[in-house]
Protein backbone atom coordinates (compact mmCIF):
# COMPACT_ATOMS: atom_id res chain seq x y z
CA UNK A 1 0.00 0.00 0.00
CA UNK A 2 1.37 3.40 -0.97
CA UNK A 3 2.04 6.04 1.65
CA UNK A 4 -0.85 8.23 0.47
CA UNK A 5 -3.35 5.35 0.59
CA UNK A 6 -2.04 4.28 3.97
CA UNK A 7 -2.49 7.81 5.30
CA UNK A 8 -5.99 8.08 3.87
CA UNK A 9 -7.30 4.73 5.11
CA UNK A 10 -5.82 4.95 8.60
CA UNK A 11 -5.93 8.68 9.33
CA UNK A 12 -8.84 10.13 7.33
CA UNK A 13 -11.17 7.24 6.45
CA UNK A 14 -11.98 6.35 10.11
CA UNK A 15 -13.41 9.81 10.73
CA UNK A 16 -15.41 9.75 7.48
CA UNK A 17 -16.95 6.42 8.52
CA UNK A 18 -17.70 7.58 12.07
CA UNK A 19 -19.28 10.82 10.85
CA UNK A 20 -21.54 9.04 8.36
CA UNK A 21 -22.32 6.40 10.99
CA UNK A 22 -23.53 8.92 13.58
CA UNK A 23 -25.07 11.66 11.45
CA UNK A 24 -26.52 9.19 8.95
CA UNK A 25 -28.22 7.21 11.71
CA UNK A 26 -29.69 10.40 13.17
CA UNK A 27 -30.89 11.60 9.75
CA UNK A 28 -32.55 8.28 8.99
CA UNK A 29 -34.31 8.26 12.35
CA UNK A 30 -35.59 11.79 11.75
CA UNK A 31 -36.62 11.41 8.11
CA UNK A 32 -37.45 7.72 7.57
CA UNK A 33 -38.60 6.20 10.84
CA UNK A 34 -40.83 3.63 9.09
CA UNK A 35 -37.70 2.06 7.58
CA UNK A 36 -36.09 1.74 11.04
CA UNK A 37 -36.60 -2.00 11.41
CA UNK A 38 -34.95 -5.35 10.83
CA UNK A 39 -37.47 -6.55 8.18
CA UNK A 40 -37.85 -10.01 9.67
CA UNK A 41 -38.78 -12.94 7.44
CA UNK A 42 -39.34 -15.35 10.31
CA UNK A 43 -42.44 -16.92 8.74
CA UNK A 44 -40.22 -18.59 6.14
CA UNK A 45 -37.74 -21.33 7.09
CA UNK A 46 -38.15 -20.60 10.77
CA UNK A 47 -35.83 -23.37 12.02
CA UNK A 48 -32.92 -22.27 9.85
CA UNK A 49 -33.55 -18.64 10.78
CA UNK A 50 -33.63 -19.47 14.49
CA UNK A 51 -30.35 -21.37 14.46
CA UNK A 52 -28.60 -19.00 12.08
CA UNK A 53 -29.79 -15.84 13.84
CA UNK A 54 -28.93 -17.10 17.33
CA UNK A 55 -25.44 -18.27 16.36
CA UNK A 56 -24.77 -15.06 14.44
CA UNK A 57 -25.94 -12.71 17.19
CA UNK A 58 -24.14 -14.58 19.98
CA UNK A 59 -20.92 -14.55 18.00
CA UNK A 60 -21.12 -10.98 16.72
CA UNK A 61 -21.97 -9.49 20.14
CA UNK A 62 -18.96 -11.23 21.67
CA UNK A 63 -16.75 -10.06 18.79
CA UNK A 64 -17.93 -6.45 19.07
CA UNK A 65 -17.33 -6.42 22.81
CA UNK A 66 -13.97 -8.18 22.48
CA UNK A 67 -12.71 -5.89 19.72
CA UNK A 68 -13.81 -2.78 21.61
CA UNK A 69 -12.19 -3.81 24.90
CA UNK A 70 -9.14 -5.32 23.25
CA UNK A 71 -8.31 -2.37 21.04
CA UNK A 72 -9.27 0.51 23.31
CA UNK A 73 -7.87 -0.72 26.65
CA UNK A 74 -4.41 0.84 27.21
CA UNK A 75 -1.60 -1.65 27.70
CA UNK A 76 -0.73 -0.14 31.09
CA UNK A 77 -4.16 -1.04 32.51
CA UNK A 78 -3.98 -4.78 31.88
CA UNK A 79 -0.22 -5.37 31.99
CA UNK A 80 -0.44 -5.75 35.77
CA UNK A 81 -2.73 -8.77 35.40
CA UNK A 82 -1.78 -10.30 32.06
CA UNK A 83 1.08 -10.01 29.59
CA UNK A 84 0.61 -8.88 26.01
CA UNK A 85 1.43 -12.40 24.80
CA UNK A 86 -1.19 -13.95 27.10
CA UNK A 87 -3.74 -11.36 26.02
CA UNK A 88 -3.05 -12.21 22.40
CA UNK A 89 -3.59 -15.93 23.03
CA UNK A 90 -6.81 -15.16 24.89
CA UNK A 91 -7.99 -13.09 21.93
CA UNK A 92 -7.05 -15.85 19.47
CA UNK A 93 -8.92 -18.58 21.38
CA UNK A 94 -12.02 -16.60 22.38
CA UNK A 95 -12.19 -14.63 19.15
CA UNK A 96 -11.70 -17.78 17.09
CA UNK A 97 -14.54 -19.56 18.91
CA UNK A 98 -16.91 -16.59 18.65
CA UNK A 99 -15.90 -15.96 15.03
CA UNK A 100 -16.60 -19.59 14.13
CA UNK A 101 -20.07 -19.45 15.70
CA UNK A 102 -20.77 -16.18 13.94
CA UNK A 103 -19.48 -17.55 10.62
CA UNK A 104 -21.70 -20.64 10.82
CA UNK A 105 -24.75 -18.58 11.71
CA UNK A 106 -24.14 -15.97 9.02
CA UNK A 107 -23.53 -18.67 6.40
CA UNK A 108 -26.90 -20.21 7.29
CA UNK A 109 -28.61 -16.82 6.99
CA UNK A 110 -26.88 -16.12 3.68
CA UNK A 111 -27.80 -19.56 2.29
CA UNK A 112 -31.40 -19.06 3.39
CA UNK A 113 -31.68 -15.66 1.71
CA UNK A 114 -30.00 -16.74 -1.55
CA UNK A 115 -31.45 -20.19 -2.15
CA UNK A 116 -35.02 -19.72 -0.94
CA UNK A 117 -36.90 -18.13 -3.84
CA UNK A 118 -39.63 -16.63 -1.65
CA UNK A 119 -37.16 -14.96 0.70
CA UNK A 120 -35.01 -13.79 -2.19
CA UNK A 121 -38.01 -12.07 -3.82
CA UNK A 122 -38.92 -10.23 -0.63
CA UNK A 123 -35.34 -9.17 0.12
CA UNK A 124 -33.84 -5.82 -0.72
CA UNK A 125 -30.56 -5.66 -2.58
CA UNK A 126 -29.01 -4.03 0.45
CA UNK A 127 -29.98 -7.06 2.57
CA UNK A 128 -27.98 -9.44 0.43
CA UNK A 129 -25.10 -6.99 -0.02
CA UNK A 130 -24.90 -6.46 3.74
CA UNK A 131 -24.76 -10.18 4.46
CA UNK A 132 -22.03 -10.64 1.85
CA UNK A 133 -19.96 -7.78 3.31
CA UNK A 134 -20.33 -9.17 6.85
CA UNK A 135 -19.49 -12.68 5.64
CA UNK A 136 -16.34 -11.43 3.89
CA UNK A 137 -15.39 -9.46 7.01
CA UNK A 138 -15.72 -12.61 9.12
CA UNK A 139 -13.56 -14.54 6.65
CA UNK A 140 -10.86 -11.86 6.90
CA UNK A 141 -11.10 -11.90 10.69
CA UNK A 142 -10.63 -15.68 10.82
CA UNK A 143 -7.77 -15.36 8.31
CA UNK A 144 -5.88 -13.11 10.74
CA UNK A 145 -5.80 -15.84 13.42
CA UNK A 146 -2.82 -17.80 12.01
CA UNK A 147 -0.86 -14.56 11.64
CA UNK A 148 -1.71 -13.58 15.22
CA UNK A 149 -0.67 -17.01 16.48
CA UNK A 150 2.67 -16.75 14.67
CA UNK A 151 3.33 -13.44 16.50
CA UNK A 152 2.06 -14.57 19.90
CA UNK A 153 5.52 -14.35 21.49
CA UNK A 154 5.80 -10.55 21.45
CA UNK A 155 2.27 -9.58 20.30
CA UNK A 156 3.81 -6.73 18.33
CA UNK A 157 1.03 -6.50 15.75
CA UNK A 158 -1.67 -6.43 18.42
CA UNK A 159 0.05 -3.60 20.29
CA UNK A 160 0.43 -1.57 17.10
CA UNK A 161 -3.25 -2.01 16.20
CA UNK A 162 -4.36 -1.10 19.72
CA UNK A 163 -2.19 2.03 19.73
CA UNK A 164 -3.58 3.05 16.34
CA UNK A 165 -7.20 2.60 17.50
CA UNK A 166 -6.60 4.54 20.72
CA UNK A 167 -5.03 7.39 18.77
CA UNK A 168 -8.06 7.52 16.47
CA UNK A 169 -10.44 7.76 19.44
CA UNK A 170 -8.35 10.45 21.14
CA UNK A 171 -8.08 12.45 17.87
CA UNK A 172 -4.34 11.85 17.51
CA UNK A 173 -4.21 9.77 14.30
CA UNK A 174 -0.90 8.29 13.26
CA UNK A 175 -0.93 6.13 10.13
CA UNK A 176 2.85 5.74 9.91
CA UNK A 177 2.94 2.69 12.19
CA UNK A 178 0.24 0.97 10.09
CA UNK A 179 2.56 0.90 7.06
CA UNK A 180 4.28 -2.21 8.45
CA UNK A 181 1.14 -4.10 9.50
CA UNK A 182 0.43 -7.25 7.47
CA UNK A 183 -2.20 -7.09 4.75
CA UNK A 184 -4.89 -9.32 6.34
CA UNK A 185 -5.11 -6.98 9.33
CA UNK A 186 -5.27 -3.93 7.08
CA UNK A 187 -8.05 -5.37 4.92
CA UNK A 188 -9.94 -6.46 8.03
CA UNK A 189 -9.74 -2.94 9.47
CA UNK A 190 -10.71 -1.17 6.24
CA UNK A 191 -13.69 -3.44 5.63
CA UNK A 192 -14.70 -3.13 9.28
CA UNK A 193 -14.73 0.66 8.99
CA UNK A 194 -16.72 0.32 5.76
CA UNK A 195 -19.42 -1.56 7.68
CA UNK A 196 -19.83 1.55 9.87
CA UNK A 197 -20.00 3.63 6.68
CA UNK A 198 -22.83 1.47 5.31
CA UNK A 199 -24.61 1.18 8.67
CA UNK A 200 -27.18 4.03 8.29
CA UNK A 201 -28.30 2.78 4.87
CA UNK A 202 -29.05 -0.81 5.88
CA UNK A 203 -31.16 -2.75 8.34
CA UNK A 204 -28.29 -2.56 10.83
CA UNK A 205 -29.85 0.62 12.23
CA UNK A 206 -32.17 -1.56 14.33
CA UNK A 207 -29.15 -2.18 16.58
CA UNK A 208 -29.72 1.31 17.99
CA UNK A 209 -33.19 0.19 19.06
CA UNK A 210 -31.64 -2.74 20.90
CA UNK A 211 -29.49 -0.37 22.92
CA UNK A 212 -32.50 1.91 23.39
CA UNK A 213 -34.46 -0.83 25.12
CA UNK A 214 -31.90 -0.76 27.94
CA UNK A 215 -33.49 2.54 28.99
CA UNK A 216 -36.62 0.65 29.98
CA UNK A 217 -34.72 -0.75 32.96
CA UNK A 218 -34.54 2.79 34.38
CA UNK A 219 -38.22 3.63 33.88
CA UNK A 220 -40.47 3.85 36.96
CA UNK A 221 -43.06 1.14 37.49
CA UNK A 222 -46.41 1.65 35.84
CA UNK A 223 -49.52 1.53 38.01
CA UNK A 224 -51.88 -0.91 36.35
CA UNK A 225 -55.42 -1.25 37.67
CA UNK A 226 -58.14 -3.66 36.65
CA UNK A 227 -61.03 -2.39 34.58
CA UNK A 228 -63.44 -2.79 37.53
CA UNK A 229 -61.25 -0.75 39.87
CA UNK A 230 -60.86 1.94 37.22
CA UNK A 231 -64.63 2.14 36.72
CA UNK A 232 -65.22 2.36 40.46
CA UNK A 233 -62.64 5.14 40.77
CA UNK A 234 -64.30 7.13 38.01
CA UNK A 235 -67.75 6.58 39.55
CA UNK A 236 -66.56 7.68 42.97
CA UNK A 237 -65.00 10.77 41.43
CA UNK A 238 -68.26 11.71 39.78
CA UNK A 239 -70.15 11.26 43.03
CA UNK A 240 -67.63 13.38 44.86
CA UNK A 241 -68.05 16.20 42.35
CA UNK A 242 -71.84 16.04 42.78
Automatic annotation (TrEMBL):
<dbReference type="InterPro" id="IPR023234">
    <property type="entry name" value="NarG-like_domain"/>
</dbReference>
<keyword id="KW-0479">Metal-binding</keyword>
<dbReference type="InterPro" id="IPR036197">
    <property type="entry name" value="NarG-like_sf"/>
</dbReference>
<dbReference type="Pfam" id="PF02665">
    <property type="entry name" value="Nitrate_red_gam"/>
</dbReference>
<protein>
    <recommendedName>
        <fullName>nitrate reductase (quinone)</fullName>
        <ecNumber>1.7.5.1</ecNumber>
    </recommendedName>
</protein>
<feature type="transmembrane region" description="Helical">
    <location>
        <begin position="89"/>
        <end position="110"/>
    </location>
</feature>
<feature type="transmembrane region" description="Helical">
    <location>
        <begin position="12"/>
        <end position="29"/>
    </location>
</feature>
<dbReference type="GO" id="GO:0009055">
    <property type="term" value="F:electron transfer activity"/>
</dbReference>
<dbReference type="InterPro" id="IPR051936">
    <property type="entry name" value="Heme-iron_electron_transfer"/>
</dbReference>
<feature type="binding site" description="axial binding residue">
    <location>
        <position position="67"/>
    </location>
    <ligand>
        <name>heme b</name>
    </ligand>
</feature>
<keyword id="KW-0534">Nitrate assimilation</keyword>
<keyword id="KW-0813">Transport</keyword>
<keyword id="KW-0560">Oxidoreductase</keyword>
<feature type="transmembrane region" description="Helical">
    <location>
        <begin position="130"/>
        <end position="149"/>
    </location>
</feature>
<dbReference type="GO" id="GO:0160182">
    <property type="term" value="F:nitrate reductase (quinone) activity"/>
</dbReference>
<keyword id="KW-1133">Transmembrane helix</keyword>
<keyword id="KW-0812">Transmembrane</keyword>
<comment type="subunit">
    <text>Dimer of heterotrimers each composed of an alpha, a beta and a gamma chain. Alpha and beta are catalytic chains; gamma chains are involved in binding the enzyme complex to the cytoplasmic membrane.</text>
</comment>
<dbReference type="GO" id="GO:0019645">
    <property type="term" value="P:anaerobic electron transport chain"/>
</dbReference>
<dbReference type="InterPro" id="IPR003816">
    <property type="entry name" value="Nitrate_red_gam"/>
</dbReference>
<keyword id="KW-0408">Iron</keyword>
<feature type="binding site" description="axial binding residue">
    <location>
        <position position="188"/>
    </location>
    <ligand>
        <name>heme b</name>
    </ligand>
</feature>
<feature type="transmembrane region" description="Helical">
    <location>
        <begin position="49"/>
        <end position="69"/>
    </location>
</feature>
<dbReference type="GO" id="GO:0009325">
    <property type="term" value="C:nitrate reductase complex"/>
</dbReference>
<keyword id="KW-0349">Heme</keyword>
<feature type="binding site" description="axial binding residue">
    <location>
        <position position="206"/>
    </location>
    <ligand>
        <name>heme b</name>
    </ligand>
</feature>
<keyword id="KW-0472">Membrane</keyword>
<dbReference type="GO" id="GO:0046872">
    <property type="term" value="F:metal ion binding"/>
</dbReference>
<feature type="binding site" description="axial binding residue">
    <location>
        <position position="57"/>
    </location>
    <ligand>
        <name>heme b</name>
    </ligand>
</feature>
<dbReference type="GO" id="GO:0020037">
    <property type="term" value="F:heme binding"/>
</dbReference>
<keyword id="KW-0249">Electron transport</keyword>
<dbReference type="GO" id="GO:0042128">
    <property type="term" value="P:nitrate assimilation"/>
</dbReference>
<dbReference type="GO" id="GO:0005886">
    <property type="term" value="C:plasma membrane"/>
</dbReference>
<feature type="domain" description="NarG-like">
    <location>
        <begin position="6"/>
        <end position="227"/>
    </location>
</feature>
<feature type="transmembrane region" description="Helical">
    <location>
        <begin position="189"/>
        <end position="218"/>
    </location>
</feature>
<keyword id="KW-1003">Cell membrane</keyword>
Amino acid sequence: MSTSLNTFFFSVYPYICLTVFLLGSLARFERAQYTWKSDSSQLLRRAQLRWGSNLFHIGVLFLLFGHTVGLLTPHALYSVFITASQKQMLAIVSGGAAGTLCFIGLTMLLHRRIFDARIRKTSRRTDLALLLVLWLQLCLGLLTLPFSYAQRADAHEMLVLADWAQRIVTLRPDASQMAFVMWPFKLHLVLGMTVFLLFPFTRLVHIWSGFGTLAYALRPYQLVRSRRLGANARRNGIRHEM
